[in-house]
Every structure is written in structure tokens, then in C-alpha cells.
Amino acid sequence: MTPINIAIYSLAGILALILIFVIVKRLVTKPEKSTKSLISTTKETIDSLKIINASTDSSVMTNLLVKNRFSKLNYSIIPGLIVTKESIFVVSNIIPFNKSVEKIIISDDIYSEKNNKKQKWNYFDKKEFDNIVLLINKKYNNAKYFILVSDKIELSKINNQSEYKLINQSQLINNINQEVAPLQNPKIIVQYFSSINRFDKNDRN
Q1: Residue 180 burial (10 A CB sphere; 0-12, 13-18, 19+)
Q2: What is the pLDDT of residues 153-199, one digit of tens each?
Q3: Where are the bilayer-spanning segments (predicted)?
């Protein structure tokens, strides 16, 4: 075999190995799905959580983008996380007040009802909230999960078909302020969620 043939076969072998490596890498590496389909934290939610933060002895985090293997999108956005010395409160985007709405229905999504017509609101997805619950419960067993509601909404107007309890801003503040048993170090929990938050630090509160 001539030196030229040896060089050609060697080059072909190298190219074949590179091709095999690329194929194997694509097979074992899952493509990271876009986070654009995730439901963002609303301004009303952030404003409400700021009031809760100012009214309680707690650490409040909002708009957390975290890796979540339970989600089909590989990520989840946690609208609100409130850490106290006793509990972890996880809240959904707030259901805002709208005086024209006659009734609110919570199932897999949230719908407003007026004149027997339903309209879907795009700031809540029960399946995604379920995925957040699965993620947090893997590490913490004292987390409490709520659908946050504006103080201006009469809870009797809400038909809640989900397993999550409703809570408004005032009730949440009262619940936190009534806690008496220091069972955990909030700083450690906040540090953990800060470390896994994929959003820029400027997006945190």
C-alpha cells in the first residue's frame, strides 16, 4: 500500500470517527426546549408579593426560572416563593380583579364568565403548576401551594375545581404573621433557589 493510500484511508477513518461521535452526541443529548412557551409572572403578582414581603417577616422571591425534569418544556417559572422560618409558600399568578366578570372557574385553566360566555385567561396552567409541585416536593416536604387571588374578589364568585386552595393577599399575610415555630433557616432555602434560578439577578425581588 502506497503512502498516499495510507493517508487517504487514515483520513477516511478519522472522518468516520468524527461522524459517529456527532451522531452519538445528538442521540444522547436532549435538545433544550424553548422557554418562550412558559407563562410569565404577571406585574400584578409581583406587586402583590412586594406588599407581602413588606408586611411579613419572610423572604420573597418572584419570577424564578428553574430547570424542571417533570415539565415537557424542561423548565418551569415559579411566580412566587415565600420562605418563612416555618413554611414555604408557593403561589400562582394572582387572579386579578375585574368588575365586569360575573364568575371565575378554575379547572385545568382559569376562565372568566360573563353572560354565560367563557373566556380563558392565559396566566395559569394547572399542569405546569403541578410540575412545580413535583419539583419542590422532591426537596422540601413543608411547602404549601396556593392559587393567589386579589383581595377585591369575593371568593364565593370562584368555582375552584382544582385541588389547590385559594388565598388572597390579606389571608396570606395573616397566615405568615401567625407562625410561631421556627423550624428552618430561610436563608439556606433562599440561597438554594437563587442558585438554580436561570433568570438574571435583576429579575429577582
Answers
A1: exposed
A2: 998 899 999 999 999 999 999 999 999 888 899 999 999 999 999 98
A3: 6-24
The three cell numbers of residue 55 are 408586611
Name, in order, each residue with C-beta under 8 angstroms of 194's C-beta and a sequence gap of 6 or more. 61, 204
Closest Cα partner for 95 from 160, 30, 12, 8? Answer: 160
Tell the burial category of 19 from Cβ atoms under 10 Å away from its Cβ (0-12, 13-18, 19+).
exposed
Q: How far apart are CA 158 and CA 104, in angstroms?
A: 5
Separation between Cα atoms, residue 91 and residue 118, nearest integer Å:
24
Using a cut of 0.85, tell me whether the model's pTM lies above it.
no
For residues 88 and 145, what is the distance between their CA atoms, to the nearest angstrom?
9
Report the alpha-carbon distance of residue 125 to residue 162 in Å, rounded.
11
In total, the chain counts a number of residues equal to 205
Domain borders along the chain are 1-30, 43-203
